[in-house]
Structures are given as C-alpha cells and as structure tokens.
Write a structure and sequence with these properties.
The complex is a heterodimer of chains A (438) and B (52). With 438 residues, chain A is mostly helical. Chain A has helices at 15-42, 57-68, 70-82, 91-112, 121-124, 131-155, 164-175, 177-200, 218-246, 253-288, 308-325, 328-332, 334-361, 377-400, 407-410, 417-421, 423-437; strands at residues 212-213, 216-217. The radius of gyration of chain B is 19 Å and the shape is rod-shaped. Classes of the chains: A mainly alpha (438), B mainly alpha (52).
C-alpha cells in the first residue's frame, strides 16, 4: 500500500504488521498523553515532588536522554570535523536518535516548568549568571541544529526527492553540514557541561560540590566527557537493537567497531578522570565542608544509597565497558560488545541519577534525616511518553527514509513488481541495458 | 535577551552569554537561508533547462 514511499532496493515488513507495531506503541503513548493532560490542567500536585525534591524523575530523565543523545554531536564531530569518513554510514541514525532524545528532553522540561505558558521567560528575561539558563539556550538551539541535520534525510524520501527544489535543498544542506556539525559541537559542549556544573556549584550541598577552574567545577567537564563517551554507545545499542528487531544487518562491522573503539578510549579517559575527581572530593573537598566520605553512603532508608551505587557507577558500569571497548577482541565479540554498550548506558544514567537525586537525598544539616522520594504514576507515564514518541519517529524514519546507506549492499533484494513498473525505474533499467546491447 | 528588554545591562556577562547565543543562531540562520536560496536558484535553473 505504501510501497511508493519506501526507499528503493530495500525490503520492509508488510503494512499491516507496521500498523500493528505503531498501534501497540501508540497505546503506551496514549497513557503518557493522559498523564500529560492531567499535569497541564491540574498542575504539579500530580507529582510527588516536594520542597526537598524540586528536581526529580523528570530532571534525571532529561539529563539521561541528553547524555545518551550526545552520540549525535560526537559522531557528527568525528565525521565532519575530524574526518572519520566511515562514520557516514551511521551518522544519519545518530542524528535521528539524538533528535528524538532532545525532543524528549524539551518535552519533559515543558512538563517540569509547571507553567508552560511562561516557558519563554527563561529566554526573554535571561539570567546570564545561571548555568540552567545556558542549558535552556543551548538545548533549544541544539535541537534546532539537530532538526537542520534531520531535514535532509526527510527530503531524501523517494517521493519528496522528486521535487527539484527539495532535491537541491537536501544536497545543499549536506554540502555545508560541517558548519552545522561544528555549531552543534559548540552548543553541546556548553549545555552538557552546564548540566554537570549545576550540582558542582552547590557549595551548600557537599555531596555534589566540586572545586574546578575559573567558574567551571570539574563536573562541568566530566559531564561533557561522559556524554561524548557514552552517547555513541547508545547509538551503537539502538543500531544493534534495530538490527535485531528487523532481522537484518544495517551497518557494517568495521563502522560499529570504529565508533566503539573511539567510545572506549573516551570512556577510559573519562573513568580515570572520574576516579581522580572522586578521590579528591572524598579526601579533600567533602572533609573541608565537615563531612566524612561514608556519611553520604550510610544510614539511609533501605540502604538505597549505599556504597554499592559508587561501585556500580564507576567500577561495573565504567571500568568494565571501557576495558572491553578498548580491546580489539572485546569489540569483535558480539556478546561483549552488547554488554559493554549496555553497561556504559546504565553507568551514565546512574551518574545522572546520583548527581541529581542523591544530591537532594543527602541531609546537609545535623537535625535532618535522608529525604526519600518515589515518583507518581503521572511522572512515570510522562517520562515514558517521549520514549514511545521516539520509537514511533524512529520506526517511521526507518521505514520511509534512507537512514542506513549500507542497507542495500548488506541485504540484496529483488524489487517488487510495482517497483519495476515505475517509469523512472524502467528508464534506469533501459539505460543500464544499452551498453550490453551495444 | 535583547538590549531593549528592561533588565538588559551592557556588561561582560551579557555580551559573552548573549554574544555566544546570537553567534550560534546567526550561523544556523545564515546556513539555512543560503541552502534555501541556492536550492531555489538550482531548481529554477533546472526548470529553465527543461523548457529548452
């Protein structure tokens, strides 16, 4: 039914199967929309946030998707500015995944600000001394960059590309993509960093507070570094997951291995820096504020914030994936690669949870006890909503857009009868036949 | 955000912060405008070519 929209030379599942899949995901989306409507009409009393947890599940989700979406800026940086040409075969998908992540982030922020109608205040009446203002500016501008990077892919749809203006527009945008990629890298560096800077400057909360250089705490650099390291892992993970779902290979191994190798070395550097930062904070910064290291990991309800969380974040989800990804053998083993990218993703999500929520949970005054929080169903549903939306956008893009340049080569396919009968295909076939006839 | 907003001050903070933002937005705007104009010119040139 929709075969005219599907890229040439590739096979897609039957329309009924696709509609069924989109319908199932739309059910989840609808659940999120119900919660979203409740929050917009009834307000933030629909959440379990309180005076201790002004930042909660939404902000964690924001920070996590922004870190995971870092694959877009870093892959674009490697492809267009460093010149890693092989990555052209995965950069489209990295942009698509990044686009979904950043749409999710801004959507969640739209819920979180409580008064969405006043969302423009942060731009118009900007507080130039606030890291969060910088985040808002760079985040919005970077979503603009990702949209610009995504548009040529849409214009390359089989039918849209027949319109000469759109065909040339897509070509021209590709031609100067390096300019947009550089702008994206600039914006990403600052907003990823500023997100890390927020807990780092909280001198009244010694769990998050860090020393640093000039106005930037070390967490500023650690956040950017971890996003550049773990973002590509998420791109690899989603690519591999897509391959599993559609049941075919979409990107050659050498491309995945190159990205995994760069990601592995970035992760190694990050983990070394993170360990040094943690040791300095535990032995110098926190004691100077009157806290012993173990104060942050003991006497909390159910030991939810025990020392295990630090071991899990840095050791299991940091050192292990880094060790796997920097070795040739680790990258070539399917199981090890899956494990490494999954651990890296969990690690960066855990880091964001610790730096946003554990910071708020730790008591800072002697008469206080640990603050606990569990999100309401509305918070959970609205956090899952963008995931469902992203799944739909990725599914539609995969079906109708030439996202994977190597797909045709990796999956030779005999075109269907209606493809062959199209006039332009016939012309092409005739043109190809001429030399042979001669 | 703009010099005509009531809270605007001509200090280093505003110039660095807003300068960075407007620099990025200008590059994006000019880049997209260039692509659109060039695509229109290329497409009209192609159409003219088809007429002859």
């Amino acid at each position: 039914m929709d075969s005219a929209l599907i890229p040439k030379g590739v096979k897609r599942c039957p329309t009924w199967q696709f509609v069924l899949w989109i319908g199932a995901v739309s059910g989840v989306l609808l659940w999120g929309v119900v919660a979203m409507v409740l929050i917009y009409f009834k307000g933030l009393n629909q959440t379990n946030m309180n005076n201790a947890y002004g930042f909660a599940l939404w902000i964690w989700a924001d920070l996590a998707v922004i870190a995971l979406g870092g694959g877009a800026f870093f892959t674009g940086f490697l492809r267009y500015l460093v010149g890693k040409d092989e990555l052209k075969n995965i950069v489209n998908y990295a942009v698509l995944v990044g686009f979904c992540c950043y749409v999710s982030a801004l959507m969640i922020l739209g819920f979180d600000i409580g008064q969405p109608l006043r969302g423009w205040f942060i731009f118009w009446h900007a507080n130039v001394h606030s890291m969060l203002t910088e985040v808002a500016f760079c985040l919005s501008a970077y979503l603009g960059v990702l949209t610009i990077e995504y548009i040529p892919l849409i214009l390359e749809n089989r039918q849209i590309n027949k319109v000469p203006f759109f065909h040339h527009l897509a070509h021209n945008m590709h031609e100067i993509m390096a300019v947009f990629a550089a702008t994206g890298a600039f914006l990403s560096f600052f907003h990823q960093g500023s997100l890390g800077g927020v807990p780092g400057v909280l001198f009244a909360r010694p769990f998050g507070y860090r020393t640093g250089v000039f106005v930037w705490p070390w967490t500023f650099f650690l956040f950017t570094w971890s996003a550049a390291a773990c973002g590509p892992c998420f791109t690899i993970f989603i690519t591999k997951l897509t391959e599993k779902i559609v049941g075919k290979k979409l990107v050659k191994d050498n491309v995945i291995e190159l990205l995994a190798k760069i990601s592995g070395w970035m992760l190694t550097g990050y983990i070394i820096a993170k360990i040094i930062d943690t040791v300095y904070w535990a032995t110098v910064t926190a004691p100077s504020k009157g806290f012993a290291f173990m104060d942050f990991y003991t006497n909390n309800p159910g030991s939810i914030y025990g020392i295990w969380i630090l071991i899990a974040e840095i050791g299991i989800c940091g050192v292990i994936p880094a060790a796997i990804l920097i070795t040739d053998r680790g990258r070539k083993s399917k199981t090890a690669l899956w494990l490494a990218v999954l651990l890296a993703i969990i690690g960066v999500c855990l880091n964001r949870w610790v730096m946003v929520l554990q910071v708020l949970a730790v008591p800072v005054l002697s008469f206080e006890s640990w603050f606990t929080y569990f999100p309401s169903w509305q918070e959970i549903a609205t956090t899952i909503l963008p995931v469902a939306l992203g799944t739909i956008v990725v599914s539609l893009s995969y079906r109708y857009l030439p996202v994977f340049p190597q797909e045709r080569e990796l999956n030779p396919y005999e075109p269907a009868a209606d493809d062959v009968l199209e006039p332009e295909t016939q012309e092409l076939a005739e043109a190809e036949l001429k030399p042979a006839q001669a | 955000m703009f010099p005509f907003s009531f809270e605007w001050i001509w200090d280093a903070g505003h110039m660095v912060f807003m300068g960075g933002l407007w620099y990025a937005l200008t590059i994006m705007g000019l880049g997209v405008t260039y692509c659109i104009i060039k695509a229109a010119v290329d497409a009209s040139g192609e159409n003219d070519g088809n007429h002859h």
